[in-house]
């Protein structure tokens, strides 16, 4: 059953897993979603089993607002229906015993909700989900949401759906192997921050950014189209700084690292590199040409320059070392993702099913 205790008492008890809270979501939080405070001042609740529902389950824990959620168990929670979050919650996946915790088989939904923090958590949808219109994580029409050190995989509709979302950050995360539409992320409204993420083996939308966006220190590997706006996106501003685009076996046109960037967009692009030769060596060249977009002479968002504190090459080294959910060593799926990236052009595939990866547990990997 759930264990509930006062916030201050529990905070002291779990100090190794928590960060000092300041004016933002957690120490080190960045971007537009860092304004979230989640359930940090609410009741602390412990998830005590891996059941889909019932007392002690994650579904029960997220059913009420103002909760700060910790885990006494590790492993996969296999969902039988989409997991709907409440507003004003924090999910602390880093509190789970090794090898960590996550969900498989259905969407996690924060649709229409606000003030959510999720850290060190795996969200792997896959074709166990019978609904082809669902995504691995959906925050459509949500606000003040930050996802940090998460591992997203096998998204069916989109991996991350953020249509109509306001003030969001996705940071230090792995966004890999989408199936179905084979898309990474779709954001509209914004503003949005994508910071230090690994984007791996997607057809398109890495992200599709119909919003004012910061895109800083990301690595995009084995893409068919990477940073995308689309001609119907409207007019937005984009800070695209110190990212590394790396072609892989599925990349048919390396110059689609910036895709459908039309004259309605205003872009400050600097320090970005493109490695197009698929020769197992990181040896790209600087590439900051963004189609017919209006080239800005300075960042549109004043905090962007300070966030871009790694070169593209240094970002690659840091992300393959530390991105994703849970402590090192990584789990089976994330290890496969990172190994694919480290092949630097010689390995990678855009999948239609998680089982096609050949990993255990029908492709979900074993926790």
UniProtKB/TrEMBL annotation:
A Gene Ontology molecular function term of the record: metal ion binding
Segment forming the signal sequence: 1-22
Keyword Lipid metabolism: no
Superkingdom of this protein's organism: Eukaryota
Keywords: Glycoprotein, Metal-binding, Signal
PANTHER family: PECTATE LYASE C-RELATED
Protein name per its UniProtKB record: Polysaccharide lyase family 1 protein
Keyword Transport: no
Species for this entry: Coleophoma cylindrospora
